[in-house]
Design a protein that fits this description.
With 288 residues, the protein is of the alpha/beta class. The protein folds into two domains: 155 residues, Rossmann fold (3-Layer(aba) Sandwich); 124 residues, Hypothetical Protein, Haloacid Dehalogenase-like Hydrolase, Chain: A, domain 2 (2-Layer Sandwich). The protein has twelve helices and 14 strands. Helix 1 packs parallel to helix 12 and helix 4 packs across helix 5. The longest helix is centred in the middle third of the chain and has 15 residues. The mean pLDDT is 93.
Amino acid sequence: MIKVIASDMDGTLLNSAHEISEGNRNAIKKAINKGVKFVIATGRDYDSVHQLAEKNGLECEFVLMNGAEYRDKNGKLIEKIDLDKSKTKDIVNIMHKHGLCDKIFTNDGMYTTCTEEESMKGMAFQLQVMNPKLTFEEAMEEAHLFNGMNAIKYITDIDEFLNRDIEIRKIFGFHTEVSVLDETKKEVEALGDLAILSSFATNIEVTDIKAQKGFILGKVVDEMGISRDEVMILGDSFNDYSLFTEFKNSFAMENAMEHIKEIATYITDTNDNDGVAKAIYKMIPEIE
């Protein structure tokens, strides 16, 4: 009997229009009404995710920042795994060396050591990856309107920042050249005890090695007294890998990366064709 459903967001729960389809939304609500916990597992932070859940009328819990946080349906922090502050400066310096603009996710919101102009350009490039039809000029206009950009705080002295009473959850970087990201990942990996993941081919996301989606979800369900056989997971990309190694009831999206498909127990339909709903109905057929 399935008691927990955990789904990745981008490329899984969200379609190409970055929305939760009516089919997926209805299936999730039916499962919740039956008493199943629904968990959104994402690389994003709480502020950018809970609004989406509220907009769609979903009462759910959250694995955030690739597994650096677990929050309940009210946003209460249940578990956290911080990045070693002593490695933060080295990670940021490596990113800068390769031309990446950093975003530092903390318990006090998002920070960056980049300038506002660099951050806007980085956001524009990300928007272009998500919507290739956008010109750079159009993407820059959208970046200026993007709510998340207004919340970024700018660091002028990294040493002073690190001396604050602040908890660092994740460091994010973006680059349009995959070869540059590969070299960046190698250098960051050499620092040791870090999880270096990606939600897209064009980004890098660094957390403590224990801060991964599958690990923190496993810890929470164990503490709840729920068997891991009573959990189903869905994902499509690099940062979902630990979900597939920790839980056997695993579904890769048809649009997933090949190495995710290879380790999945099941393959469901694409994120544009209600793949999440179809997987839920396969595991909980009585709610269809």
